[in-house]
Amino acid sequence: MRYFLGIGSNVGERLGYLRAAVGGLAARGVAVTRGSCVYETTPVDAPCAQMNYLNAVVECECGHAPHELLGMLHEIERENGRERGVRNAARTLDMDILLAGDARLAGAELTVPHPRLHERLFVLTPLRELAPAVVHPVLERTIEALYHACRTASTECVRLFAPHYVLLSC
Question: Is 88 a domain residue?
Answer without folding.
Answer: yes
